[in-house]
Amino acid sequence: MDSPNGMSVQDVVKAAQEVGIRIPGVVDSVHWRITLSDADPAKREEGRQALETAIRDSHAYGGTSVLLVPAVCGGSVSEADAWSRSIEEIRKTLPLAAELGIHVLIENVWNRFLYDHDGPNTQSAEKFAAYLDAIDSPWVGAYFDIGNHQKYGRPSDWIRTLGSRLVKCDVKDWGIQSGWARIGDGDVDWSAVNQSLSDIGFTGWVSAEVGGGDTEYLRTVAERVDRVFSL
């Protein structure tokens, strides 16, 4: 689920119960356009309020997390500014997150923050880990997107570096030749990923971040997820 979403909590919970699914968390719906790294304090405030709505919604749905893109760099926003501004705003939400038991989980996306988007595919997770450590809260961790980081480095190495900071994973695939690919058809070394997840004792949720479809399509997605995690 995205949040804020304009839907009543009651309608969402009822629909999930009728279909028989769990909602393990939500995605902040405004974090790309109303960023916590914006130079305008009013925009950052608006983004923080949206994050707090997402925290409340996740709790109401029975979830445990909010996926957050904390900053977008480029133009007038430097990485140093994005770092300090986003941390300041995230910290303001932590009393609420702690009260409701909701993790704020930072996703590694192509937002030109914490890694060089145009750099080599040998980059490490050290800066990402340092950012999480700078926030210094048990309620903040990583929602590690396995496919996103195939472009920057070996996802298995990033997983080991993040260690206990890693709380949940997004699952998709990417390759130098194929670009975005069906799960299992890109360049991700899933056997190495599985070993790394085992090494850090990971037992959290994984989410297939792919396009939607009908029942038959979703069945093939589930089969692919099962296949790559059995390697």
Name the poorly predicted regions. none
CATH A-level architecture: Alpha-Beta Barrel
User: What percent of residues adopt helix (DSSP H or I)?
Assistant: 40-55%
What profile does the largest beta sheet have? 7 strands, parallel
What integer is the average pLDDT?
Answer: 96
In total, the number of strands is 9
Question: What would you call the shape?
Answer: globular
Give a verbal description of the structure.
With 231 residues, this protein is α/β, with parallel strands linked by helices. The protein has a single domain, classed as Alpha-Beta Barrel (TIM Barrel), CATH 3.20.20. Helices cover 42% and strands 15% of the residues. The chain contains seven helices and nine strands, in the order βαβαβαβαβαβββαβα. It has helices at 9-19, 41-61, 79-100, 126-135, 155-162, 190-199, 215-228; strands at 2-3, 26-28, 65-68, 103-107, 140-145, 166-171, 173-175, 179-181, 206-208. The protein has a seven-stranded parallel β-sheet with strand order 1-2-3-4-5-6-9. The protein has a two-stranded antiparallel sheet with strand order 7-8. β1, α1 and β2 form a beta-alpha-beta unit. α2 runs parallel beside α3 (79-100). The longest helix is centred in the middle third of the chain and has 22 residues, at 79-100. It is globular and about 45 Å long. The two termini are 29 Å apart. The mean pLDDT is 96.
